[in-house]
Amino acid sequence: MRLAPPRTRIDANKIKVKDRAGLRKIRISQISVMVLLIVGLLSVGCDYNSHMTTWGTAGPVAEKQALLFNVLLWVMVVVFVLVEGALLYAAIKFRRKPGDGLPKQVHGNTPLEITWTVIPTILILALGVWSVQTLFELDKPPAGSDVLEVTATGHQWWFEFEYPDADGNGTFVTTANELKVPVGRPVHVNLLSDDVLHSFWIPRLAGKVDMVPTRNNHLWFQADESGVFHGQCAELCGRAHALMKFRVQAVPEDEYLAWVAGFGKEPVLSAQAAQGQLVFNGEGGCVVCHSATGPDSPATVDARVQGFLSGLESPVAPGPNLTDLATRGTFAAGILDLNRENLRKWITDPESVKSGNHMSGRATVYQTPDGTTKLNQKQVSNVIEYLLSLK
Amino acid sequence: MAHVGGQLPTSDVDHTYTTTGINHRKLLMWVFLGSDCLFFGSLIATYMVYRGQSLVGPYPIDILDIPLTTISTFVLLCSSFAMVQALAATNKNDQKGIQIWLLLTAFMGAIFIGFQVYEFNAFRLEGLLVSTNLFGSTFFTLTGFHGAHVSLGIVWLMVLFFVARKGKVGPHNALDVELCGLYWHFVDIVWIVIFTLLYLVGGFDAGPVAGVLTEPSLLSLLA
Amino acid sequence: MATITEVLERPANATGLWSWITTVDHKRIGILYGVTAFIFFLVAGIEAGIIRMQLAVPENGLVSPDVYNQMFTMHATAMIFMAIMPLSAAFFNFIIPLAIGARDVAFPRLNAFSYWSFLFGALLIHSSFLFQQAPDAGWFSYAPLTEEPYSIGKGIDFWALGLQVLGVASLAAAFNFVVTIINLRAPGMTMMRMPLFVWMTFVTSILLVLAFPVITVGLIELTMDRSFGAHFFNTVGGGDPLMWQHLFWIFGHPEVYILILPAMGIVSEVIPTFSRKPLFGYPVVVFSGIVIGIMGWAVWSHHMFTVGLGPVANSVFTITTMLIAVPTGVKIFNWIGTMWGGSIKLNTCMLYAIGFVALFIVGGLSGVSHAVSPSDAQQQDTYYIVAHIHYVLFGGAIFGIFTGIYYWFPKVTGKLLDETLGKINFWLLFIGMNITFFPMHYLGMNGMPRRIYTYSTEYGWDFLNLLATAGYFVLFVGILVFIVNVVISYKNGKEAGHDPWDAPGLEWTISSPPPSYNFAQVPQVLGQDHYWIVKRQAEAAGNPITKPEPFVDPETIHMPNPSYWPIFTAFGLLLLAVSFLIEFPWQYLKFPIAIPAGIIIFIGVMGWSFEPAAPEGHHGDDHSDGGHH
């Protein structure tokens, strides 16, 4: 006589036969709920319209990575259905019924166990080999193609982009937070960081690679269609990590070259903008951290970084180059659309937009009791006009 | 030792039952030493990865005094010999011998530490601190933690010495001396590895300009 | 050293607060671990709630970015080190000696020491909240964000020093269980007759012994950088941020197996019990656990696929990581094979075990997709990873722990947990967990990075985030139901008897709760699933077993006496850690605290080594020969 099972409130073994149909109904409804839940959960995410979706591939690198994932996804779905199915089937089919004796005491089945070890191993190795192939394929841009070299440097909390030779004629361009590239050409991005870890990620174009201080990492991508592709820093880098975004703008080659040609040219300034330029270079102190008249030399950036590191009270930090600001759609690292209202908000009280930012943290013009600018609103308006003239 | 926690049998059965026949504490010491291998291994790996990467001097070749450290290494090696003798004396119940050899082991360990203190101080005066460069950071951390292990060993030896003076160390508890010996020999072996890598191999490193490279290794694939 | 203990006699009480403080009984220590860890589980759960509330809607202002960063850092750190690991330790403590037929662990005072160190370390880290300086650089605290000038304030120091104290606790426990399992098995219990939970505890303990020193070194180096100006990870001085990552993940990957293997061990015992069949392929399940333990050392850089190690290194780790899926997957097949053809009882405990398998399948599959490094380049640092983590740690480790609680609660307390409340608890957690974490797979693949305190509505992440937050509340209610179940059942639950489940393990041969001495007679182990063998033989002989092993007078059995040295020594350790933390404006207190701390540790170890086995006049005081553990 085996020990009686502990009594529970619903003891299926003791329920009379005529109630078993009712119990079956409960089981069916429980299972239907689970099925609905599963189907529901599986379908909620099928959204391909997001700016940041890895499924909305727009270039060869992202495509190859997505292909690998999508195939793997179907393999996972099949395995999931088979294994979960077996689990559920076993749980239901072999449920204890009243009068059940001791089941056959099986200890194992060596041929079966070998099979179900060898088959997954083969499958996994096959996928592994394909992954390794893809890895090496994606490591460098295709040989012999006309690669555009860009250097992206991560800063707390914005992206600096430099083109050592933007147009093939040696034109050096420095910009920030918006990377203009020609459509259909591979872009090779060298990845650096001047402070902490960051990560360069444009989901629709390529998987991410981290920006590690002291290392020269790199990735490449190619935009096969025109458009604006959103990116975001994907490695915790401090307080404002969530607000460190960027955009890649892929344009036809001629538009791209026109932009390069216009870079650093003397802007046409209205009277108010000229006033703003005076404030920018003078009382506002903006020029200490932001260049607006051409590319940044490495020496300039280095001096700003050293200044930043020299102490918590030092009024310097590397700031985005603003020479072509007016050609960008967003600013403050991709978080604000470029318009007068936003510029006013940002310039007047940066801390309220991006808590912890180094502009209001360090710049002299923001060392006030509430952290807002020392400039009056007229000066701010002038500066805004100046900034919007920077093309 | 007389009673071991977790013993099954009631009072009339052997209190020293172990499934393998190895005393619990001896097994513990071996497991601990295995763990300590990973500890020193990680510190040594850090040193190896950072070899030759210091941005400023002083560099090893400027500052390490290999002949001097060879002497202290030799003293530490001799102390292991003394430790072996202490255990032998314990097994023979040679009370005088136990005390002398334990004291001698501790004394030689103390000489080693003395040399190390002198060395650290000399480096400090010559401008090498933990914060000076990578060599300073890795050297002081690694050898400092080793020195701390030796110091704890000296304390252990002295406690055993004082217990021995009361006549309470003998063949019946030779395990206590053996455990201390295992620890002491381990610390000695770690020093041999450190001495070889930091002094004999890395001791001639002279800054990145001189083109001294870390050995190409798996580490370089990861770094 | 008798003078030390003459001040305060070695205790011998069995009741009262002092008896709990000085206990060296593995069963009491197990309960202490369990209750303490569960409290920290709730604290970490509240932190999760704050995270979910902040992310429920875009551009939310519930908490500042600073506080948010502290929340996810503390949530993960607490869940991993102060909830899952000590909850597993609670089971190691209570069950292992019973399961191998021993009266206690090999080193009862070391066991107590590891509990008190755990408690003090956990309190130390959480005390950072009092100073509003909780750590905020994530649970793996990548350098150089953790270095100055990027991390001012003491948060990271609280984290580093607290983890060191917790590390001592884990190491002490691991040493104990390695020796206990090797050396205190009852006669007849060969390694291949050990219950699966004992095997997994053994592998876990070896992993702990080997992995913790690596993070100890990493934390030492971080502390050297922050407190003494060293340059281990400080880029200005030539340090390499990747050095931290390598050290951390060489520890970190074995750590995740430390988190999951105990749960796998529990489930490997529960499924056979409630299928009334032995574990299918016992040697393979054991062997795959060992293989996972070994291979777990060869995969760490899959956490670093995006840091630019290059295609060669990434390829190696892709292959090794994909291969480790095989022993993991094989276990799942073995569990299903155990259920197949069995006689399955779907009580709460078994539901949790099946739920574990079901959810771990999902987590394991998403893990395989991370192993493929080109596609991991899109997944890394996104919510897809967060989904994987929670399927394996919540659906895996936590569900495994709940399985263990429902299985062994009767043994610990003598009462059964209520089945109705239990089933409600299970379904709420199972459904809630899927609602909370399944959408995160999509959020990640649709571009939502991790560790962002807010997001913009233009990306279409709003609905799924809100759904995930709704799921949190389902989980919240589920946990409440569990707490109610425990409280009610502890007070008024049905008597469990010694063997409510007709289970095969040695622990079920004795009363519930067990007597202080565990076993009166040395069990002579007859094989795997020993008690099944005994019971079937007795049945066949017409003499079925209906009662536990009879009691004997505890006075006739020599058990280790309680001791105050473990908590005393642990306190010294705490003070030492505190002395490192003290900064301006009390920096002059550093040495005045550190030196007494060192002295307390020294006295503690001395007292521990030389205290008599029992106070004067008590049983066992004739063993004062000085050679104690």
Which keywords apply here?
heterotrimer; A: 391 residues; alpha+beta; Immunoglobulin-like; 2 domains; five-stranded mixed beta sheet; three-stranded mixed beta sheet; 10 helices; 17% strand; disordered N terminus; C: 629 residues; mainly alpha; Cytochrome C Oxidase, Chain A; 18 helices; 65% helix; disordered C terminus
Task: Give a written overview of the molecule.
The complex is a heterotrimer of chains A (391), B (223) and C (629). Chain A is α+β, with helices and mostly antiparallel strands and 391 residues long. Chain A has 2 domains: 192 residues, Sandwich (Immunoglobulin-like), CATH 2.60.40.420; 118 residues, Sandwich (Immunoglobulin-like), CATH 2.60.40.420. Chain A has 10 helices and 12 strands. In chain A, the strands form 4 sheets. Chain A has a 5-stranded mixed sheet. A 3-stranded mixed sheet of chain A has the order 4-10-9, with helices on one face. In chain A, β6 and β7 form a beta hairpin. The N terminus of chain A is likely disordered. Chain B has 223 residues and is mainly alpha-helical. Chain B has a single domain, classed as Four Helix Bundle (Hemerythrin (Met), subunit A) (Up-down Bundle). In chain B, α3 packs antiparallel against α4. In chain B, 40% of the residues are buried. Chain C is an all-alpha fold. Chain C is built from 18 helices and no strands. Chain C starts with a helix and ends in a 19-residue tail after the last helix. Classes of the chains: A alpha+beta (391), B mainly alpha (223), C mainly alpha (629). Chains in contact: A-C, B-C. Chains A and C meet through α1, α2, α3 and β7 of A and α4, α8, α9, α10 and α11 of C.
Mean pLDDT of chain B: 88
Q: What's the β-strand tally of chain B? A: 0
- The arrangement of helices and strands of chain A along the chain is HHHEEEEEEEEEEHHHEEHHHH
Q: Give the percentage of residues in beta strands of chain A.
A: 15-25%
Taking all residues together, what is the mean pLDDT of chain A? 89
pLDDT < 50 stretches of chain B: 1-13, 210-220
Got a strand count of chain A?
Answer: 12
